[in-house]
Amino acid sequence: MGIFSKKSPKEKLQKTYEKLLKEAYNLSHTDRTAADKKTAEAEEILSQIEKL
Length: 52
Hints:
This protein is mainly alpha-helical.
């Protein structure tokens, strides 16, 4: 993959999904409500990935 290669929409969504899950995990130690919101966002992204 070169410097100018573009990621597919699915790859971008997957990266966002993983990021949100990581944030949710980190928040789960301090703020459960915020962690639940991040998890919900991640699930929304996952449903978009499955549609592709």
